[in-house]
Amino acid sequence: MPFPYKTVLVVGATSGIGLALTERMLSEGVTKIIALGRRQDKLDDLQKKHGDSKVSTVKFDITNLEGIPKMIEGVLKPHPSLDCAFLNSGIQRSVDFTEPSSIDLDVISTEFTTNYLSYVHLIKALLPHLQNRVKGGENAGLIFTTSGLALVPIVRCGNYCASKAAMHQLILVMREQLRDVGQSESGNTAEEKTSGENKKSKGVQVIEIYPPAVQTELHDEKHQPDIKDGRNMGMRLDEFTEEAWRGLERGDEDIPVGTTWKGFGYEEVEMRRKKLFGEMMEKMKGN
């Protein structure tokens, strides 16, 4: 089925996965992108390429948590038709606990704020608008980029892995809370996809994309000097974008991409954990 959303806020739209999926959305019929990022020159380039009728821009640093409500208010006022937010921005830094003196707590805090706390603030600011759309019989969705490292960590960037794992758990719980209050029916999970079931979302659809390592500036040496030639590490960005987009078009609520399906244990571990999560919820309903 076609991608159901037409006016999309993209947080982290100026590079990497965010930019690639922004370009894909525009080519596939999304009528308006509100591109949010920190780099004005990159925002200007995107708007110049597609025109201001297709792309609006917002220069904003999402670590400014106190400024998020006012920023979202400023987005929604000229764009009341906004039906989806794609929360994608993130940073990754290495941390070595064998050398405590090397640990910069400001870097730790910034990484966790960027990858997790800012999302919580954005969700809180966006949900009233999206839920009102659902009550009016219209589509609404939240799309998140987490990571295969949310499922299985690696040693060199433990704080990044922890932030993505926290976001993953929050997404699971939020999806079920929305469903319990009658706001959401889940789209296809990866398990449902393989079994041929086809559930339709009736509420705020909550979608999680799990990338493996992808060739983006996330791994640049200027940010992570312990990685050499990091821009060329991982899955090609165009291949990632194609596979992720197919999942979005299917309406999947979980989209493990590339090696995340097997290499990071989605098939073996996450599908089992989801089953246990469902069983726990059923038990708690009886209490």
Strand order of the largest sheet: 3-2-1-4-5-6-7
Radius of gyration, Cα only, in angstroms?
18 Å
CATH architecture: 3-Layer(aba) Sandwich
What is the CATH topology classification name?
A: Rossmann fold
In total, how many beta strands? 7
Which consecutive residue ranges, at least 5 long each, have pLDDT under 50? Answer: 180-201
Q: Compute the average pLDDT.
A: 88
Please write the string of helix (H) and strand (E) elements: EHEHEHEHEHHEHEH
Shape, please?
Answer: globular
Biggest beta-sheet profile: 7 strands, parallel
Fourth-level CATH superfamily: NAD(P)-binding Rossmann-like Domain
Number of helices: 8
Explain this structure:
The chain is built from eight helices and seven strands. The protein is α/β, with parallel strands linked by helices. It has a single domain, classed as 3-Layer(aba) Sandwich (Rossmann fold), CATH 3.40.50.
